[in-house]
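Sat 14:20. Reprocessing the chain from the morning session after the first attempt stalled halfway. Input below, unchanged.
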Amino acid sequence: MSAGAQLSVTDQRRMARHPVDHPVIAEYFGRGDVSMHIANISANGFMIDDADNVGRGERLVVRLPVIGRIEAYCIWCRDNRAGFQFERIIRVDDFLSLIDTLQPNPRLRKMR
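Finished this time. Tokens:
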């Protein structure tokens, strides 16, 4: 029997990652609210760079601009970084609006 997260979105870490500098308060199941820093984001998930005591398979809820509340599961951990995968698919137009909000400098945005 699998003990990991049961995700509706397949693991696609090859998606384009967009560098961001976004502090967020995550509703961490079993721990309450935890401050985190999102360093990059894709249509399928995000990476934090202050992942002290985060374990693979753990879940949390973050509130992102445009998207609102969304649940995510930790897919990997290394050093003080961790990658999270969203539990649902984000619409492309919503994701592009999110990037425009989180990354106001157009020179940092990936080509579309």
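The CA atoms of residues 18 and 110 lie 7 Å apart.
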